[in-house]
Amino acid sequence: MSKKATQYPISKRPIGVFDSGVGGLSVLQALRRELPHEDFVYLADSGHAPYGERDDAFIIQRARAITRYLLQGQPPIQALVIACNTATAAAIHLLRQEHPGLPVVGVEPALKPAVAASRTQRIGVMATRGTLASQKFNALLAKFDGQAEFICQPCDGLADAIEHANESKLIALSAYYIRAIGQFGLKSGEVDTLVLGCTHYPFARAQLQALLPAGVQIIDNGEPVARQTRRVLPQAASAEHTGQMRLYSTGNPQLLAQAAQRWLGLACAVQTLML
To answer: Is residue 201 a known part of a binding site?
Structure first.
């Protein structure tokens, strides 16, 4: 831990959250519900998005740079949440090795709760190519071998459509990928559960739900990540403290400001970073 970090009591330091763009706001939303008294710093790496179509070396470089920046803040972060499935798969093991004193929480597609929820044992998974191709995801998939059939669908362009609030593209891509997964429904042989394996995708939940038969469940990972963050937090903030928020973007700050207002009801200024 740096000398600068020791100058700030742990309970006074924020939780850092980062994603390739605005999608991690879905995780931030869950975190704020679970930890309303904590301060948060959210960094959208929109200037280098989308991660899901980048190679591991690039994602690792970005994750390292962002983590260093957040640890050098005033005050520095006390914990880090990687609110991106692709970045978690590529970089979380390295960040934990390089920063052993920093609790690091990642996200992964919610396959376990999907298996528990499914009755037909046919489960659709929507994710980026980077996530689906990762060793971490395939190891996770192997844990449930024989328990369910997973239809894994790479969703090129969907996160970008959500990022830029392109409604027509979002609807078209949602319909295309739902058709590609196959027949949804509650009967034997049909897909009755859909896993959203990218943190952007919960913000397309309404559009996706409208395309699915009644009773088909949609599952994401925001709440489990929030609960895990509470468990590993070194020291909770005072219950009398009102949690504060800082927003940063390496891309267009208006995209993040508008998304935070639209989805979280946050009216926050966004600082642009050259990082």
So the answer is: no
For residue 187, what is the domain's CATH number? 3.40.50.1860
| Residues forming the active site | 84, 198
Indicate if 45 and 91 belong to the same structural domain: yes
Is 20 marked as binding a ligand? yes
Per-residue pLDDT of the chain (275 residues; tens, 9 = 90+): 444 555 667 768 999 999 999 999 999 999 999 999 999 999 999 999 888 778 999 999 999 999 999 999 989 999 999 999 899 999 999 999 999 999 999 999 999 999 999 999 999 999 999 889 999 999 999 999 999 999 999 999 999 999 888 999 999 999 999 999 999 999 999 999 999 999 999 999 999 999 999 999 999 999 999 999 999 998 878 888 888 999 999 999 999 999 999 999 999 899 999 99
Q: Is 128 annotated as a binding residue?
A: no
Q: Do 240 and 183 share a domain, yes or no?
A: no
- Tell me: is residue 6 an annotated ligand-binding position: no
d(CA 109, CA 198): 7
How many distinct structural domains can be found in the chain?
A: 2
The rounded distance, in Å, linking the Cα atoms of 231 and 258 is: 31
Kindly report the three-state secondary structure assignment for every residue of 2-64: CHHHHCCCHHHCCEEEEECCCCCHHHHHHHHHHCCCCCEEEEECHHHCCHHHCCHHHHHHHHH
Instruction: List the structure tokens of 85.
Output: 């499935």
Q: Are residues 136 and 176 in the same domain?
A: yes
Q: How many CB atoms lie within 10 A of CB 231?
A: 9
Q: Is 199 annotated as a binding residue?
A: yes
Residue 99: domain span:
3-107+223-272
158 with 229, same domain: the answer is no
* 200 annotated binding-site participant: yes
Give the Cα separation of 15 and 92 in Å (integer): 16
